[in-house]
UniProtKB/TrEMBL annotation:
It comes from Desmophyllum pertusum. Keywords: Cell cycle, Cell division, Mitosis. This is Anaphase-promoting complex subunit 1. GO terms for cellular component: anaphase-promoting complex. GO terms for molecular function: molecular adaptor activity. It comes from the Eukaryota. InterPro entries: Apc1 (IPR024990). GO terms for biological process: anaphase-promoting complex-dependent catabolic process; cell division; metaphase/anaphase transition of mitotic cell cycle; protein K11-linked ubiquitination.
Amino acid sequence: MAMGLRFAGSANQEAFNCLMFYTKHCKDLLSSSAVEQAGKPTVETCLNSILLSLAMVMAGNW
């Protein structure tokens, strides 16, 4: 969330790439058996926070 606030509206490519990496990582976790240990709602909440940060970084730039 801090990265989203720091780079809000900037379309910073490094911030975008970092957030997309973690988005894909959480998405992959949802389809694996590891999600049972952490709990599906926990992983989904993390994914939602990352996507919100990604939306803040890219806001107004498309």
